[in-house]
Design a protein that fits this description.
The protein is an alpha+beta fold. The protein has three helices and twelve strands; from the N terminus they run αββββββββββββαα.
Amino acid sequence: MSQHIGKLYRSAVSSFFLFLLVDVGVTGGSASKENSAVTHTAAQPSSLTTPEPWHLLVTQTPAKEKAKEGETVVLHCHFNSPRRPSLADLLVKWYKEDEKGQMDLLENNVTVLPNNSRVFLRGDLSQGDASLVILNVTTGDHGIYFCEVTLPDGKVVTGDGTKLRIRRALGLFGIEESIGTIIGVVAAGIGGVVVLIIVLTPQLRRCVLCMRQGSRQAWGAALQESLEDAKPTGGTTSDAL
């Protein structure tokens, strides 16, 4: 009987200690998981950060460009940004300003002129090159050309512009001049003729007067000589008597 009671006592004590060990292990594991979760949450950075602003500089070169009719012209446009936007992130636009107003040539990286293959974009946008090419230029291409770049954040940056002038052949001795030079030469020629007329007019008048006076004197001398020849001489009359 006493042996049976002793076995029951030892079994109860073993079960009690086993329960304590299991409970302590579970509690410790939960605490470790909670501490790990807290540590992970604290180490995770916040996703609500302020985006870095764009800094873009658009440069057009040269400021003035001259070409002859029929030639190919390249209007250079380069942009520089530390963030180096990709081709899909930016939009390039070219437009021209002249006495007729503003005319869009290229928008969203594509030519907008209908049935016009003379104007197109050249260069690698990923390398900051947005240069424009104009084939077979004509006098109608006169104007100031502007390069405009739109960034992903909506910011628009425009270059200072390039003034394009087209020379054309006059067909006279192969002389090639711009329209402005032609007008200047014609105006100078007309002005020179007017000055010559003003300067020479008094002298021409004097020459005409001299000619008139000389003609009158010559006519008077001839008339007088004729009259003298017509008069009879005294010696001839006496002999006749």
